[in-house]
Amino acid sequence: MKTLNVDLGDRSYPIFIGQDLLNDAALITPYIHGKQVMIVSNETVAPLYFEKIALLFSGFDLQSVILPDGEKFKNLSILNQIYDGLLTHNFDRSCTLVALGGGVVGDMTGYAAASYQRGVNFIQIPTTLLSQVDSSVGGKTGVNHALGKNMIGAFHQPQCVIADTDVLNTLDNRELSAGIAEVVKYGLLGDLAFFDWLKPNMPALMRREPKALAYAIERSCSDKAKIVAADEKESGQRALLNYGHTFAHAIETGMGYGRWLHGEAVAVGMLMAAQMSCKLGFIESQSVNEIQQLLENAGLPIRAPEEMDVAEFLTLMAKDKKSIAGITRLVLLKKMGQAFLCDDYATEVLINILNQHLHAPS
Amino acid sequence: MKTLNVDLGDRSYPIFIGQDLLNDAALITPYIHGKQVMIVSNETVAPLYFEKIALLFSGFDLQSVILPDGEKFKNLSILNQIYDGLLTHNFDRSCTLVALGGGVVGDMTGYAAASYQRGVNFIQIPTTLLSQVDSSVGGKTGVNHALGKNMIGAFHQPQCVIADTDVLNTLDNRELSAGIAEVVKYGLLGDLAFFDWLKPNMPALMRREPKALAYAIERSCSDKAKIVAADEKESGQRALLNYGHTFAHAIETGMGYGRWLHGEAVAVGMLMAAQMSCKLGFIESQSVNEIQQLLENAGLPIRAPEEMDVAEFLTLMAKDKKSIAGITRLVLLKKMGQAFLCDDYATEVLINILNQHLHAPS
């Protein structure tokens, strides 16, 4: 087992990464301060892991809330089910919420913890590769609004995160690939050596070899933790973590939450951002090809959905949280392995890239 | 005009207190960082003050959301109207929300600001005495849940607060009295000299003399600011601000939100807490009489609602956010002008006080 410490002063916490971590009550119980524990999971994950996880909390007042599965349920109304559960069981400020599931469960449980009685503790047990590498670091929690993704939320750090590679064996291939998209992101935005490691090791990741997975998780979390530690509230450098995401959010919103997996949209978004970086003269077309090849090897899409048109795409991109005064700031590649925040590009270049994806023959 | 600085490090902010402050754009605009301003108000306050306040923001992209008036609308569903307004008008992270109204508008607007895009700026223009002395200091924001008051929320500090005594002229008498209840609280919990000032000056406050009001607001805010600065997240001393509130919340929840004004419930709660402090031997019965007399002079109720019974009251009190492991901790008076947090009282004493209120002949 590897332990990675996310360094955020008095909000620091460890991420435990490895195999067979979910049988060890001694790993998790030191991070629970009161007696009341609420496991929040969903209808897909709970049948697989709830009983096993419940065993970790003998001796606690254990309750649970099982949510419907899917991004389309990540809203205020379903969030209210968590508050209902907490209040029905008289949970007080010393309680701990445990998020057992993927990114949606993690974001919603984290936000419920951030807002219940103005803030209680929570622990993350991410069960997808995406949530292990992404939502387990950084403290971003929240829900979607009909008019925009992740528009309601808070920064709230967990007490600890347990990333067990064993749980990835029950992931379907599409979910695995979606997680790998975020792994590739860390290589592209700031860690070229990791990107170079990924090229020959992609087959091992696709075969779910525990050592390769653990290394990819650790390296991604470590890369992210460094950025988050330097910029907890996203005033500068942290925005680079959104590499590919402005395009991705437009795809997810445009297609309706849940039809494209987040990581699938991110894969296309990263490619679009690379193509734009190339058009602006920052990177070579050879590098764009390498990125495209790596994404294809990971079983990821490399083209935006044809149902969307350019005008819709631009409108949705303008709603991005990084937008200030109507200008869509984009995270682009200054060079391979180095992202930067760009707001002085010609809109024609962006439209050109969108046209390539949305209207070119398939 | 008096300026009181609430000292919270990089979250410090000023409270401006005085007459005729709402005609001065130069007072408020330095606290607005972007171009987008959303005034949130309610159907009672907006007709009185919206036009006047809107004049302060010429040159900004000004939008508004007008909520229904009342504590019963302080919930997630009505909160969503604020998010709808922000998203419909493409408000970004640099926007500022302006709360124009009483405590409900302030709490909801503050919570919308805390949670929209994980946190944007807000400014408070409290229009009731209660919100001027109470919710303008401390950063507590949130909404109610059907199962408990203020159960969903966040700590989020405003950029500035403008407490104009002129707006109190449109308050009805019941609202004025409810505000005075919180003023009396500051005297009782930690400022005996202020309590002694209040006794001869209550008639001036009831006549709404601007100088007396401004002094009472400033002294209350200053007392509260000292406590909040020492304990921003309510781990210890800040709980003393809840003097009378555990009883009060039981009354408000038991009677249904909005039937009793918060300050009215606090008045009875403070008296019950004083009676309990007397029964436990901390203060003299003469002091209890003084408190009761001051509350009566302020036109406040001094008896709990007869519709409630002891069992219901105890159950509701146990849901209080200060409760840990089922024990209802109470803020009581160690002596006049000095509150403390007590959890080792005999439940019989509490029941005895409840019986006095709920079953004694009126």
Quick overview:
Chain A has 362 residues and is an alpha/beta fold. The first copy, chain A, has 13 helices and 11 strands.
What are its keywords?
homodimer, alpha/beta, Rossmann fold, three-stranded mixed β-sheet, four-stranded parallel β-sheet, 45% helix, Dehydroquinate synthase-like, alpha domain, 362 residues
What does the model show?
The structure is a homodimer of 362-residue chains. With 362 residues, chain A is of the alpha/beta class. Chain A folds into two domains: 169 residues, Rossmann fold (3-Layer(aba) Sandwich); 187 residues, Up-down Bundle (Dehydroquinate synthase-like, alpha domain), CATH 1.20.1090.10. Chain A is 45% helix and 18% strand. The first copy, chain A, has 13 helices and eleven strands. In chain A, β7 and β8 form a beta hairpin. In chain A, α6 runs antiparallel to α7. The longest helix of chain A has 21 residues. The first copy, chain A, is globular and about 60 Å long. The mean pLDDT of chain A is 93. The interface between A and B is large, with 37 and 37 residues.
CATH topology of the largest domain in chain A: Dehydroquinate synthase-like, alpha domain
- The CATH architecture classification of the largest domain in chain A is Up-down Bundle
Please identify the top-level CATH class of the largest domain in chain A. Mainly Alpha
Largest interface: A-B, 37 and 37 residues
Helix percent band of chain A:
40-55%
Tell me the strand percentage band of chain A.
Answer: 15-25%
From the spread of the alpha carbons, the general shape of chain A counts as: globular
Oligomer type: homodimer
Order of helices and strands of chain A: EEHEHEHEHEHEEEHHHHHHHEEH
Indicate the structural class of chain A: alpha/beta
Strand order of the largest sheet of chain A: 4-3-5-6
Distance between the termini of chain A: 45 Å
The CATH superfamily of the largest domain in chain A appears as: Dehydroquinate synthase-like - alpha domain
Average of per-residue pLDDT values of chain A: 93
Instruction: Give start-end ranges of low-pLDDT stretches of chain A.
Output: none
The number of helical segments of chain A is 13
Number of domains of chain A: 2
- Number of DSSP-assigned strands of chain A: 11
Largest sheet of chain A: 4 strands, parallel
CA-atom Rg of chain A in angstroms: 20 Å
